[in-house]
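Async update (no meeting this week)

Hi team, since we skipped the sync, here's where things stand on the single-chain job. The sequence we agreed to prioritize is pasted below, unchanged from the tracker. I ran it this morning and attached the output directly underneath so nobody has to dig for it. Comments welcome in thread, and please keep replies under the output.
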Amino acid sequence: MPHPFPTLNQQKQPHVWAIAPDAHALESLAEGIWDCARQANQRPLVVLSTAGPLMEVRAALERYRPQNLPSQIAFLPQVMSFNDWLEAAPGAWKFPKKQTNLERWLSVYINLRKHKTLQSWFKAENEAGAWGLAQAVIDACDALSEAVVPLMQSEINALVQNPTLDAELWVKKVETLLDQAIAKAYVGLSRQVVDQESTVLLAFWRYLSSPGDPVIRKHIALAAHLQAASTNQALARPLIWVETADPKPIDQETISEYLQEYSQFAPVVNIGLDWHSVALWSEALSGQNAEGQLKPVDSEQQIQIDRNVQASFHNGWKLLAARRFEELAWAAAKSIEAHLIAGKTNIALVAQDRLAARRARALLSRFGPSLRIRDETGWKLSTTRAAASLNSWLELIRSPKEGPSASALLEFLQNPFFDIAHTLQKPPQACVSLIAQLEDILIASQAKSGWETFRMAIERANAYSSSRGSVPYESLLELLTFLQRHHAQWLELKLDCENAYVLLNTNLQEMGMTQELEKDSAGKQLLEVLKTFDLGAGAYRQVSMRLPEWLSLLKTVIEEASYQEVGQQAEATLSILPLSSTRLREFDAVVLVGCDEQQLPAFSEPPLFFSDTLNRLLKASTITAQYIQQARDLSQLLISCPEVELLWQSKSKSGEPLRPSAWISRLRTQLPDWSILEVKPDTHADHSRPLQEAVTTVNPEIALPVSMSPSAYKALRDCPYRYYVRSILGLRKAKEFEEGFDASLAGQVLHAVLKNFFQALKTEEQKSHSSIHQGEDARRLWMQEHLTKYSEKEFERLIKGDARVTGTLRDWQKQIPSFVAWQLKREAEGWQYHDAELAVGFILILTDSDGIEREIEIAGRADRFDVNTNHSNAAAVIDYKNQGITKIKKRAERLLDDPQLLIYARAVNENAIAAHLPGRTVEQAEWVSLKADLKKADDKIVRTHPVENMPEMMEQFSEQLHEDLEVLWARKPMKAFAPDSVCQYCEARGICRKGMW
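Output:
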């Protein structure tokens, strides 16, 4: 039977009333509040201990408003959460200024500098860990203050009652009282702890506590409310305190004392929850004893619990087990979908398993705007794309002075809030695909880090574009200069909290990010968080620190912030919330995910410094108290909601079985008919017809290329299907920075070193007085010295941008003596350097599918050409390879599949004038290793490998080339037939499905 609302009388103590937290709890509470208003003939003040059921209580008061109320109580009773009520305390302007979390963290930082004892404790922490530890220290200090400050409540009450003190003097008086209380408690607590952590924590508590702490302000606000009631007793309204959750013992004492004192001036009703008819487990009914242990239940209480279980069980309770994570999320989404189809408009998804809830939410997004999703689990602002875009800039500015990595640079440039047109002050159409071009350049050149490295890569790309008649990427150099300048500003900044905030704000404005963030809901909230770093004229604005410390602090503040979704009108609402937020709330249906033994119950992280025993000593929250509260929350949910579905994953990641929560198992012992349903995703049967062969034919509407490079022809030889996908359709996988070292910037520099060196050698040979003509030893010495000099000069900028390239330079310098010896030997045979990096090609006449003759150019860029001084018509082509001779020999075995040297040779032979070799014929072609095995004796070092049977190979190549391209231009079927070694790294692997047949 429900307890009747008490009759208000003139007693000077709180009236106690309890409601059963069942399906009628809000109705009973609303009727009781209206009863209080009628009896007192005043509009009461209703204060809820937690804010969760605030809107539901207001809605219930409106729903159950009595008829014919007197005018003075016709308005709804004022309903507030405890925290809001404290903030609305009279005279709050006189309170000590409330410190933000940022200011409290900075106070930890300042005290670390002042006190060596504290510094020794933090010295092993990195920046991110230190700020996290600072938060733990602050929480622990608040717990200590919670236990001590109530002891000085009478002094605070007396202080609030003194109207003669001005605000500044008032704050100083509070500070004095706090120091006295802490000093007195410090002595007693110090005797009870002997370990270093607790000793240092007490020292922190002593140094950090201030009148601006939330604990101090709470007790000052209580005193202010009490003072207002005592001063105007005729206007003091009835106070209804609603305890929606079990309080901590220290909070229970504080509130009880306040209600007792307030009852001297106005009626007070202390409303609690009666679990007698609701509890489904013994701990939910009995609670804990004074020692913090679970109370055993007697036989009468056990009978009542059994009766509650039998009376409450109905068809709305369902147990659903899924074997895998995806199946769990799918089952949760399907359950919610079924409720929506049934017409339910107010549904709760209780996120005991937050990952599964997030996944279910993603699956439900297909409902679009017809379903409003409210996430009350504390969605981190740091997980939004707005925060990710800011973080990409923070990662870039924390890079070393040489510059960021290419990955960090591209991650920032590709974030959707960076306005490149605004940054460069150019029309948007002029900036289209600019970032994609930069990415292609950096990947092709393997420029992995450093401003100078990136600049070299762009300059080389510009030079190549100019030589081919294309437009160079001048805007990329402007963009690079802009970013480098801003990066340097951060490194040169003598950072404090004020100028760091100003500079960051300026950066975001100049890059157009502020304007773009303001258009996004998460971006707006991110900008509001950043404004908290504007400390104005506060005491912390000029706190200086290192850049990594400030960046870690900024990230920590963003990590602590929650993202609030923008509300919208919809046909139905899904609330994603923790179990604790379901108290005294009404839902049409509830889906609870994560009901396995590992996640239900779930305990909050234990305090870093306090044991459970010490928590009981300080009258704080304990594991036992959390266990009891969750048992009661789950009992209330099952009793009050018409349909509850409990889901869990029955198999762990390792494949071990997971049982349902012990609470569910205990219920099932009393409810044998309550079966577990194994959820299975929808399956669809069909008959597959696997491919017999991967074959394609070039569509007549697709234009064939009019030119082909040696690498493209190699792809055609490797697999026609691969060439079709890559070169004709233009489908290529995104390359990574680990690929293609031969095409890397370091490789390009090495080629430039050799070109510049040999050009200098030709010039030097024209000087009659040069030492180069004084014999082989003198020539060798000159060549070694100058090749070393040119190597260091060319690699200088690259090393400045990326110091890791130094290893490449050192490896090459070890090769120089052997390379010079090979060059001298080659000169002795009559071969002389002619030119390098020379673009050559030839035209091939083909007949297409319509019988029309077409021209296609086969062209590439040869590394080097030599001429023979003993034969006026002989020439040779050389290809440098930055690999060992063993790999070169394997390459030679498949010459016709990779005929790069043969293409260059034919180009010269067919048009020697265009190759600046008039009257010459290429009779020799060879690969030259730039990574010879130096462990061997000098006379056994093998550096070159020639193309054998050159005339015969040239003839075979010409026939093969004509045949291959005739097939292509005739648009005949192109089959996938490459060996596994080629397929393993093929971009078309997922398209051709060769592995299936």
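Quick observations from my side:
The CA atoms of residues 136 and 608 lie 7 Å apart.
Residues 190-194, 738-743 have pLDDT under 50 and may be disordered.
Reply here if anything looks off.
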